[in-house]
Amino acid sequence: MTDLYQTKDTEERDSSMAVFKLDNVEDLYEIGNVLGSGHFGQVREVRERATGTVWAGKFLKLKKGAGSRLGLERKSVEKEVEILQSLQHQNIMALKDVFESRAEVVLIIELIKGGELFDFIAEKENLTETEAIEFMKQILEGVNYMHQKNVAHFDLKPENIMLSDKHAPNPDIKIIDFGMAHRFIQGEEYKSLGGTPQYIAPEIINYEPLNTAADMWSIGVITYILLSGLSPFQGETDEETLRNIVAMNYEFEPYYFSQTSNMAKDFIQKLLVKNQSERMTAEECLIHPWIKPLNRTQIAKRNRSSINMKNFKKFNARRKWKMSFNMVSACNRFCRLQLLCKVRGPEEQELQYTWTCGVVTDVGVATALVRGRESERSNSR
Q1: What is the mean pLDDT of the chain?
Q2: What's the half-sphere exposure (Cβ side, CA atoms, 13 Å) at 301?
Q3: Cβ(362)–Cβ(238) under 8 Å?
Q4: Could you give the residue numbers annotated as active site?
Q5: Which of 260-264, 296-300, 335-339, 345-349 is predicted least confidently?
Q6: Where does ATP bind (predicted)?
Q7: In whole angstroms, how far apart are CA 327 and each of 320, 321, 358?
Q8: Which residues have CB under 8 Å from 308's CB, separation 6+?
Q9: How far is residue 197's CA from residue 239's CA, in Å, rounded to a whole number?
Q10: Which of 26, 99, 236, 292 fits as disulfide partner to 106, beta carbons 3.0 to 4.6 Å?
Q11: Contacts with 150 (C-beta within 8 Å, 6 or more apart), sequence order
């Protein structure tokens, strides 16, 4: 296994410089239809003029200056580009080119047409553990490659696990969205409060130094959901969810896990471990008996076990509804923010902007509440 850290910081930094082209993107690519849009830009279908190959183009608006609130910081785009340019794996979204002008950056990325893995699974009538494992194996292979490159994703969740083409006989898994990813360098300590509440590891909530083990916790949560249709730590609020994670408050309820093999439960238990150093690595996961059976008995047990499709379909429907609700809610908050900015001073605008900036801020606020109340309890004892 490759060492987690390379020995020379300077070599790591020099080899990981993001490469931007100053050419006009339209000279090399024919710009097609809009595939999606957001606050900071849009995704369009693009066709490479030289080869006719179809890609997706992410057109991202950059901030015009330090005081500008519209657009992305160039540094954050540069970090994501650097990471994606260094990751070339069948199960990771490919980045082909990056173009930069004064106002925007254009990322030419792999066009992934198969939709989300969970949506694909939810369309099935039944699914054995053996079939589910074929998808898990691909996810683990992508994550293992990433971790060998000293990169952690930090936002692994169903929305970021896609299929290249769901109509293919054996569709490839594609891990996407590296906006929160980080490359570890020897001697540097990295902390973050980012992520999606039900998938983040306890060390993120506790604001402890992080490593690639945080991704493995997320894999444990995803596997638990895939098999049962139940989220292990989900509470009524984000605060309650985070409290459940810190307290390791989860169990294998018989009603949801009646069809699940003991090997699958063991796999999950070795990932949902509070101590980072005791958590299975991606490499260890790939040789766990649930993923790689040691004998015919283990293979037979896997084949007899299946995922709880009835409950999984319900979970996926709720998840999609919540995604739609959050999108509408975020748009409404953004519209209100624009109106407020017209009548408030700069300091009030900045405060309002901080509290309406989405998931990362929400996790930070909820985490502060959890830690604050835990501290209150400790002081009252």
Answers
A1: 82
A2: 16
A3: yes
A4: 155
A5: 345-349
A6: 58
A7: 11, 10, 10
A8: 227, 228, 229, 256, 257, 258, 259, 260
A9: 8
A10: 99
A11: 4, 5, 6, 12, 183, 184, 185, 212
All domains in the chain, ordered by first residue: 18-109 (3.30.200.20), 117-314 (1.10.510.10), 328-380 (no CATH)
Buried b (16+ CB within 10 A) or exposed e, 39-78: ebbebbbbeeeeeeeebbbbbbbbbeeeeeeebbeeeebb
Strand partners, 44: 34, 57
pLDDT in tens, 211-246: 999 999 999 999 999 999 999 999 999 999 999 999
Residue partners of 248: CB distance under 8 A and separation at least 6 = 202, 272, 274
Strand pairing of 54-61 and 41-48?
A: antiparallel
Query: What tens digit of pLDDT does each residue of 40-85 get?
Result: 789 999 999 999 999 999 999 888 766 666 778 888 889 999 999 9
Confirm or deny that 313 is annotated as ligand binding.
no
The Cα diameter of the chain in Å comes to 71
Q: How confident is the model at residue 337 (pLDDT cuts 50, 70, 90)?
A: very low
Task: Report CA-CA distances (Å) from 201 to 183, 269, 270.
Answer: 18, 14, 14
Percent of the chain topping pLDDT 70: 79
- Length of the chain, in residues: 381
CB atoms within 10 A of CB 37: 11
C-alpha triplet 235, 334, 162: angle, nearest 5°: 60
For CA atoms 337, 341, 346, 348, the dihedral sign is negative
